[in-house]
Specification:
By secondary structure, the protein is an alpha+beta fold. It has three helices and three strands; from the N terminus they run αββαβα. Strands 1-2-3 form a three-stranded mixed β-sheet.
């Protein structure tokens, strides 16, 4: 799996205002900004992203995924 493939899978299952995926083919990092995160705690946000992956985590196609998740308002207030 490539970063572009993983990014496409997440984007197909979750409307994202911003999405960036990087990694080495086994260990991934994702920055996900979605309005669907409004009112959700961090664990619920991560579960929502994991849901887009289906069984890919169970089959080890995606071994590890670290995430930073933001609402659009939270993302707008982040220093860049």
């Amino acid at each position: 799996m490539t970063a572009d493939e993983l990014q496409s899978i997440i984007a197909a299952g979750l409307p994202c205002e911003h999405l960036d995926v990087s990694g080495d083919g086994r260990h991934w990092h994702a920055l996900v900004v979605s309005a669907e995160f409004e009112g959700k705690r961090s664990i619920a946000r991560h579960q929502r992203v994991y849901a887009t992956l289906g069984d890919r985590m169970k089959t080890d196609e995606v071994h590890a995924l670290a995430m930073k998740t933001y609402t659009p308002a939270e993302w707008a207030s982040q220093p860049r």
